[in-house]
Amino acid sequence: NGALTGWSHYLVFDLFVGAWIGRDAIRRNVTHIVVLPSLFFCFMFGPIGLLLYFAARMMLGKGSISLSETVEPAAR
After folding, report:
1. Would you say residue 66 has pLDDT above 90?
2. Cα separation of 68 and 62, whole Å?
3. Signed CA dihedral, 6, 13, 38, 18: sign only
4. Average pLDDT over residues 45-62
5. How would you class 35 by CB atoms within 10 Å of its CB: exposed for 0-12, middle for 13-18, buried for 19 or more?
6. What is the 3-state secondary structure (H, E, C) of 27-64?
7. 3-50 pLDDT per residue, tens
8. How many C-beta neighbours within 10 Å does residue 47 have?
9. Cα gap 17→19, rounded to integer Å
10. Is-contact 74 60, C-beta < 8 A?
11. CA dist 5 → 2, 10, 43, 47 (Å)
């Protein structure tokens, strides 16, 4: 029962965080080639993929580390 609970937790985390990364990348116009490694690491190592996505997003100037569903307007 413990193993089943643990694996279910990992799979649910991967599913929801991976889906969020995909939606957020579309909203912020992040290219697929940048998102693919993040999704792979999210599936294989959980939170490391999310941190990798945040790092890539910051390096591209597509937003800060935020889980907000809204995109900040570009500064002029």
Report:
1. no
2. 13
3. positive
4. 88
5. buried
6. HCCCCHHHHHHHHHHHHHHCHHHHHHHHHHHHHCCCCC
7. 888 788 778 888 899 999 999 999 988 999 999 999 999 988 888 999
8. 11
9. 5
10. no
11. 5, 9, 17, 18
Region for residue 12 given its phi and psi (left: phi exceeds 0; alpha: psi -120 to 50; beta: otherwise): alpha
Which pair of structure tokens corresponds to residue 72?
Answer: 């900040």
Mean pLDDT of 56-75: 70
Report the C-alpha dihedral over residues 34, 59, 11, 13, rounded to 10 degrees.
-150
Residue position matching structure tokens 């995109």:
71
Query: Tokens standing for 44?
Result: 């294989």
